[in-house]
Amino acid sequence: MSELHWLTAAEAVREFATRRLSPVELLTALLSRIERLDPKLHAFIRLDADAAMDAARAAEAEIAAGRVRGPLHGVPVGIKDIIDVAGLPTTCHSKILLDNIAAADAAVVAKLRQAGAIILGKLSTHEFAIGGPSFDLPFPPARNPWNPDHHPGGSSSGSGAGVCAGLFPLALGSDTGGSVRNPASACGIVGLKPTYGLVSRRGVFPLSFTLDHVGPLTRTVADNALLLDAIAGHDPADPGSAATSARYFGRMLDRGVRDLRVGFVRHFHELDKPAHPEVTAAVEDAVRVLQAEGAEVRDVTLPSLNEFAAVNRVILCSEAWSIHAPWLRSRPGDYGQLSRQRLMPGAFMNAGDYVGAQRRRFQMIAVIEEAFRDFDVLICASSMDPASRIEDAAETARTYPRQARTPFNITGHPALAMMAGLSSNGLPLSVQFVGRYFEDATVLRVAAAYERGTEWHRKRPPIG
Amino acid sequence: MDKDLIAKLAHAAGLDKALAEFPDDVALAAEQALGNQGAIAYPTDPTAEPWPPMRAGTGL
């Protein structure tokens, strides 16, 4: 058996089933690691150790009695602190909501409990999933396990850092402009933004209603499918929830990519936002891996990243302003500076800007849908640079927008980022796979084939 | 953007307190809002609909 903190969820469940490991033993090992490493990483805003241990003891007894509640029975999961867990504060990493105790579980947390998962605690985020990394908030920002001087990506920063460091095998994040896939890229793990509407947003503090997604962060593709299985499904209480019965997202993980048609969006990282040479090399290498596995790869052209980014900004800022205007008017000093700067632009946009961006969005969706007539999946860069130093605000401001994730928040297609290399200074590099609507299983299938064809998922950060 | 214009727009948006306490942040936000001018190829077809389309009787 691996060291307990590096067990995947799938491995842990197998060990529980054979009684070689108990949920209490696993949780005890993880709590010890959290106690040792989290003072450096700040992945947690609130560790709910006592409740987690109670749940682990209950799971141990139930599994011993042959009563397995679900596919994640006894597995600890971390929750981004914009997602409600009943009885715990949902602070959104902000002074504004320090005393905001959740009355009920978010839909995804309720589903995790149904699957038997153990809710471990609430995780660091950029303030309101937009303002960070910041040092003027009530909690410190999470740091990158590969090098704590560097940013772990965001806004689901604690989710990425904690999964990467072996503090927990599974985490939930949210993704409005790339906030699941950015920490996955920066920390060298697997992060999926599912198809819009596949996972309920009920009980998740909104940033931008039409761009927000909840998604899984894990160390392996198989775990990502397992976690998606647990949280996906129609929720009539979420107006954006899709009436789909899609599930068993891991059913094609072993099928490989032979004869799949892959569109390579080369212009994203070559022309639109020219990538760091090591990122370019990693993406090119990922293409070669898929070709070696039998995929047919051809270039495809989409609208430019710069236009996608502008459309995303107008929609996000407009929708976020409608949420935050009352607090920005009455309590501007209770926000961190980055949040103020990023949430107020909506006050200076007009109805024509917003509706115009939504009309252009419709056309952009049509272009990508047209591309998917010729391709089964797309491959492109995720981040254009390795993670910046967290205290270098200028470098973070320069590199943070240099990414190719926002297009798929605008269109709602499923998109997954995962590790694709290590930079010369020892930081993860990444690649992104994108699929048709509700073909999240195909995205995971391609990611699994890439994972099998490389060794990146076996790399561990030099911490602890 | 002209400072007086920013002040008028901020006042109209109810951001007087932010303008008094964090004038640089308000100015930066206003400039960012204008930064999208010309970056989006807005549809010229008058019949081009916004996303998502109105769908009566669904989503409630």
Task: Describe, in plain words, how this protein is organized in 3D.
The complex is a heterodimer of chains A (464) and B (60). Chain A has helices at 9-17, 23-41, 49-64, 107-114, 157-164, 181-187, 221-231, 266-272, 277-292, 305-330, 337-343, 351-374, 393-399, 406-411, 440-452; strands spanning 44-47, 76-80, 118-123, 170-175, 190-193, 213-218, 261-264, 296-299, 377-380, 415-422, 428-435. Chain A is of the alpha/beta class and 464 residues long. Chain A starts with 8 loop residues before the first helix and ends in a 12-residue tail after the last helix. Chain B is elongated. The longest helix of chain B is centred in the middle third of the chain and has 12 residues, at 23-34. With 60 residues, chain B is mainly α. The interface between A and B is medium-sized, with 39 and 31 residues.
Key words describing this protein structure:
heterodimer, A: 464 residues, alpha/beta, eleven-stranded mixed beta sheet, 11 strands, globular, B: 60 residues, mainly alpha, 3 helices
Structural classification of chain A = alpha/beta
Which residues of chain B sit in consecutive blocks of at least 5 with pLDDT less than 50? none
Got a strand count of chain B?
0
User: What is the mean pLDDT of chain A?
Assistant: 97
Detail the poorly predicted runs of chain A.
none
| Class computed from helices, strands and strand pairing of chain B | mainly alpha
Question: Which percent bin holds the helix content of chain B?
Answer: 40-55%
Q: In which range does the helix fraction of chain A lie?
A: 25-40%
Instruction: Give the percentage of residues in beta strands of chain B.
Output: under 5%
Broad shape of chain A = globular
* Tally of separate helices of chain B: 3
Task: Report strand order across the widest sheet of chain A.
Answer: 1-3-2-4-6-5-10-11-9-7-8
Roughly what fraction of the amino acids of chain A lie in strands? 5-15%
Radius of gyration of CA atoms of chain B, rounded to a whole number = 17 Å
**What distance separates the N and C termini of chain A?**
18 Å
- Our measurement of the CA-to-CA distance between the termini of chain B, rounded to an integer number of angstroms, reads 42 Å
Series of secondary-structure elements of chain A, N-terminal to C-terminal? HHEHEHEHEHEEHEHHEHHHEHHEEH
Chain pair forming the biggest interface: A-B, 39 and 31 residues
